[in-house]
Amino acid sequence: MSLTNSILCLFEITDPNLIVTGISKERCSTNQRIHVVHATLSYQLLKCPHCGHKSLIKNGTHMSHLRLGTLSGGRYEMHLKRQRYQCKDCSKTCGAKTKLVNRNETFTHNIKHQVIVLARDMLTSKEIAKLCGISPSSVQRILNANIHLAYRVKHLPENLCFDEFRSCNHWMSFNCCDAVSHRRIVTLKDRLSKDIIDYFEARFSVQERAQVQSVTIDMNAEYGSFIHRLFPNAATIIDRFHIIQLAGRALDNERTQTIRTIQDKHSRIYHILKSQWRLFHLDEIKVNDSKAVYLRGINEYMTQQNAIDLALDAFPRFRSVYQTYQGILSAIHQKDANAFQSLLTNYQPTSNQMDITINTFIKNGSALLNSCRYPFSNGPIEGLNRKIKALKRNCFGFRNIDNFFIRISLI
Question: What's one Pfam family the UniProt record gives for this protein (predicted)?
Fold first, then answer.
């Protein structure tokens, strides 16, 4: 293989009309050291592109400075001599063309592809610019020119997930994905109900929206107010994690109030409620009632069940909240909608923190029970939001929300 072919293969250049004449090292105006590949571009042009006559003659060359993809983190350029032609009939000139670069551009397709690949790895614009030997503004221009946000997805999936995330300038943006394939459907700049309704009604017909079978949401009441309007045949599902989280928060609030009523801060019960709070969030099936273990804070050996019973026997009101929490936990884990319905129906208010939670569950009765009837959850969209947060943290935040959404589409 010749030296010319070796250099062209190294830069993944496949134009057969390019001939490498040499390699050198130079310094640019910013005193940066660059690697220069000298090449010529020439081929036989038969017809004039302006008038179509076969009367072309060679008319010198034109020097083009092209930016190549980097090989070792430095800056690589190609000084390309393009053959010029002149038509004897119309006196107009034209030049040799190559697929290496677009017309009137200096960045080759190779470096553009390299920028997009690095952007998918959640690197900042400055890091990408440093690796490719270009400026950060050039990185953003390449991304803006080559990445286009889709107007809409081709087909609306049958099962959707709704959620929001913090984007730019403390704004909360809306995110939607497919509950089965985990594919992102749309990301909107804000989470206002009006904008969400306008997006789906403007881009999807009534027949397309009627094919949606379920929409999984969190405890946000705004989503539940317009889901039936957008998707008339869809069942609203409240994510199981948020149900357990709300019940667990009521359990913690009651436990905190119970701790404040204890006068002796060195008592055994106080340390159990204070330091071993995780035991009360465990499922009853997972609580160890046979093997004694050393419990820090209490500084004693005892079984987990014994520690829980000591706290519950001392405070009957806390026992009531704990038993309700365990009933919710059991119904959610076993996906038993009848047991969940029975718990909500037979619940007796006792003026504790769980009363507010149960009232919230009753208001969202059908959507809450659907969490036990359907296998879908908000796990997929929470994973997407986690990637978005990682991108935002790696790039130290974004000021321009359009640039932020372009980077989101890449990951």
Answer: HTH_Tnp_ISL3
Comparing C-alpha atoms, which of 247, 270, 271, 268 is closest to residue 328?
247
Q: Exposure string (b/e) for 19-44, b if CB count within 10 Å is 16 or more?
A: ebeeeeeeeeeeeeebbbbebbbbee
3-state SS of 217-269? ECCCHHHHHHHHHHCCCCEEEECHHHHHHHHHHHHHHHHHHHHHCCCCCCCHH
Write out the two tokens for 153: 């997805």
Stretch (H or E) spanning 373: helix 365-373
Q: Which pTM does this prediction carry?
A: 0.77
HEC string for 22-48: EEEEEECCCCCEEEEEEEEECCCCCCC
Length of the chain: 411
Instruction: Provide the CB-side half-sphere exposure for 309 (13 A, CA).
Output: 8
In sequence order, which residues have a C-beta less than 8 Å from that of residue 10 and are 6 or more positions away?
Answer: 71
Query: Are the CB atoms for 156 and 204 separated by under 8 Å?
Result: yes
Task: Collect all residues with Cβ–Cβ distance below 8 Å to 179 and sequence separation of at least 6.
Answer: 157, 159, 160, 161, 214, 216, 376, 377, 380
Q: Alpha-carbon distance 236 to 297, whole Å?
A: 44
Angle between helices 316-334 and 354-363 (to 10 degrees): 30
The DSSP bridge pattern shows strands 93-95 and 159-166 to be unpaired
Strand partners, 35: 25, 76
Q: Return d(Cα 12, Cα 7) in angstroms, integer.
A: 9
Sign of CA dihedral 100, 105, 110, 113: negative
Measured CA distances, 285 to 211, 240, 246 (Å): 40, 19, 21
DSSP secondary structure of 275-287: H-THHHHS-GGGS
Q: Which amino acid is at 183?
A: R
Alpha-carbon distance of 182 to 191, in angstroms, equals 20
Tokens 């009006």: give the residue.
Answer: 194
Structure tokens, 333:
């884990």
> Which residues fall within 8 angstroms of residue 242, CB to CB, at 6 or more apart?
218, 219, 378
Q: Look at residue 1 in the predicted model and tell me its pLDDT.
A: 46
What does the alpha-carbon distance between residue 287 and residue 217 come to, in Å, rounded to a whole number?
Answer: 31
Q: Considering just the CA atoms, what is the radius of gyration of the chain in Å?
A: 33
Rounded to whole angstroms, the Cα distance separating 403 from 241 reads 32
